[in-house]
Each structure stands twice: as structure tokens, then as C-alpha cells.
Specification:
ATP-NAD_kinase_N, single chain, Rossmann fold, Tumour Suppressor Smad4, Diacylglycerol kinase family lipid kinase, alpha+beta, 10-stranded antiparallel sheet, 4-stranded parallel sheet, 2 domains, transferase, Lipid_Phosphate_FormReg, kinase
């Protein structure tokens, strides 16, 4: 089997020595090409090349951002034709996709699981979401959560380490910086429902948990499933009490958040979010800029994952 291994050398939980051990183990079973990423979107280019050069497998050694870029490269031009399968050796600070799939966070254990999957031919289809033309593997966001991610990325660029404490401090700072916390500007549109106006923040996901705060899972959309459509969680107010209540319920309830300000949708094939002013957007924890309108689409069985 011919495989491209894409390594993020800045991955926070794998050392160079560990990566050498993993590559040695994988090289016993596959013909490997190994490339380390050097800049943002590099993995997207590598995923595109893997498809064009007909690699059978692409292995991501890194976090959710590396995986997202690879998926977007592999699927550039759509899902038609022979696509390489995807494999994951987690190396990021959160590893949301891997944890949702049940892939061990320990890179040695994840490599062992991958080798077993390759020897037995085990593959799992994975449904994705798409925000405009950008695919996401587990979540997208519009509004406050994307604003937090933008601020965290700025902090990391300045040399800060991605830790749960950094996310909490940043979330609190950006929450209090919102111009109008009582009234949202987003309109949510989906087939078969009346438009929902005044949404202040929207989280769109295709699995649950949506993310983790350290080892604590947060579940705004507990029914979300890789084999179904997209789920939505929104708040029509960022008032302090409704927001704190919703966050607490995400962390403690397994059947979803409740409240007058909560908006939820389940198993949607497509939906649109509009705002009269540009708002930040994110996919899989990567800030992608500000938009006035985003369209989100569920893409069933988009790729196959070996694990």
C-alpha cells in the first residue's frame, strides 16, 4: 500500500522521537512518503496531491486543523473518483474528531489500531459538513465561538500554548467584549421551518461531543451523528444567566440544553445563516474569516477512515 503521511511538527502532544517510532512502525507495512507541514493550508495542498497521485491512504499525524486541511485537499473538486482513505494519529491539543471516533489519544495506541485496520481491511464511512466550499469534520460556528477561536489563534501566534485555561480566559474576555449581548443579529433558515431571527451565536455539528474542555465533554447537540445530517445549537441572547446556564447544561446534561433562549435543530440536510453585519466563522476550530451569509450542507459518506 502506498501512503502519504502528513506530519504537523508543531503538534502539541507528539515529540520528534515519538513520531520517528510511529513512522518506523508504519513503514513496515506500507510504502511511505512523509512530509512535514510548514505553513497554514500546506496540508490542503498535500491532500490534493495525494488524490492526484493516487495514493491509497493519507495519514494525518497532528490535530483537528491538520485533519481538516487534508480532508479539504482530498475532496477538492468534489467526492467523485477514487479517493485515498484517511487515517488519524492524534497529536493536537484537543483531538475532537479522533475522540469522537474512538481513536486513542495515545499516538502509539492509535498507530496500533491503524495497523490492525489496514491488515484486516477495516474502513468506516464518515459523513462531513460543508460551510460554503469548506468541509468540516465535526463542527462549524458563526458568531461568538468563532470569535473566541480567532482570539486564541492570535494568542498562539504570539507564542501562547493552547491549554484549556487559555480557551476559558479567552472565552470570558471575548464574551464581555460583545457589542450587544441581549439581541443577536443572525437569522437561521432551514427547509420546512419558519426563519428564526435574533440568534446571537450558532454552533453546527455532525457529532457529539462538540468539543472538550480538557477531559470534560461539552454537548450542545447530543443527538448529532456522523451518519445523519447537521445539528444546530443557538442562543437568542448572550445575557449572562442564559449563557452560563447553557454552558453548564452542555457539561452536565446528556440529553441537550433547555431554555427560552435556546434554539436547536436536528438532522438538517442544509441550512443558511445570515447577518446584516459580518461575523466571524470557524470550521473544526480554525478561524476562516468574517461572513454575512453562510450556507451549510451535510455530505453523507464523504470519506472513509481506517481505524
Amino acid at each position: 500500500m502506498r501512503a502519504l503521511v502528513v506530519v504537523n511538527p508543531n503538534a502539541t502532544t507528539t515529540s520528534e522521537r515519538t513520531r520517528d517510532v510511529l513512522l518506523s512502525a508504519l513503514g513496515n507495512d506500507m510504502d511511505l512518503d512523509v512530509v512535514a507541514t510548514t505553513h497554514r493550508d500546506h496540508a490542503t495542498d498535500l491532500g490534493r496531491q495525494a488524490r492526484e497521485k493516487r495514493f491509497e491512504l493519507v495519514v494525518a499525524v497532528g490535530g483537528d486543523g491538520t485533519i481538516n486541511e487534508l480532508v479539504n485537499g482530498v475532496l477538492d473538486g468534489g467526492g467523485d473518483g477514487d479517493l485515498p482513505d484517511l487515517a488519524i494519529v492524534p497529536g493536537g491539543s484537543t483531538n475532537v474528531l479522533a475522540r469522537n471516533l474512538g481513536i486513542p489519544e495515545n499516538p502509539v495506541e492509535a498507530t496500533g489500531l491503524l495497523l490492525d485496520a489496514l491488515r484486516t481491511g477495516r474502513r468506516h464511512p464518515l459523513g462531513l459538513g460543508r460551510l460554503d466550499q469548506r468541509y468540516f469534520t465535526f463542527a462549524a460556528g458563526f458568531g461568538l465561538d468563532a470569535d473566541v477561536i480567532r482570539a486564541v489563534e492570535e494568542a498562539r501566534t504570539a507564542g501562547r500554548k493552547a491549554t484549556p485555561a487559555l480557551y476559558v480566559r479567552t472565552a470570558l474576555r471575548r464574551y464581555f467584549a460583545q457589542r450587544n449581548r441581549r439581541h443577536g443579529s443572525i437569522t437561521l433558515e432551514a427547509p420546512g421551518i419558519d426563519p428564526v431571527t435574533g440568534v446571537a451565536v450558532a454552533i453546527i455539528s455532525n457529532c457529539s461531543p462538540w468539543t472538550y474542555l480538557g477531559n470534560l465533554p461539552l454537548r450542545p447537540t447530543p443527538q448529532a451523528d456522523f451518519n445523519a445530517g447537521l445539528d444546530v445549537f443557538g442562543l437568542t441572547s448572550l445575557g449572562l444567566l442564559p449563557t452560563l446556564s447553557s454552558v453548564a447544561q452542555m457539561a452536565t446534561r446528556h440529553n441537550g440544553t433547555r431554555g427560552r433562549r435556546v434554539v436547536t435543530l436536528h438532522n438538517q440536510a442544509t441550512l443558511t445563516l445570515r447577518s446584516p453585519v459580518p461575523l466571524p466563522a470557524q470550521v473544526d476550530g480554525d478561524y476562516i474569516g468574517e461572513r454575512e451569509t453562510i450556507t451549510l450542507t451535510s455530505i453523507p459518506d464523504a470519506v472513509r477512515v481506517a481505524f
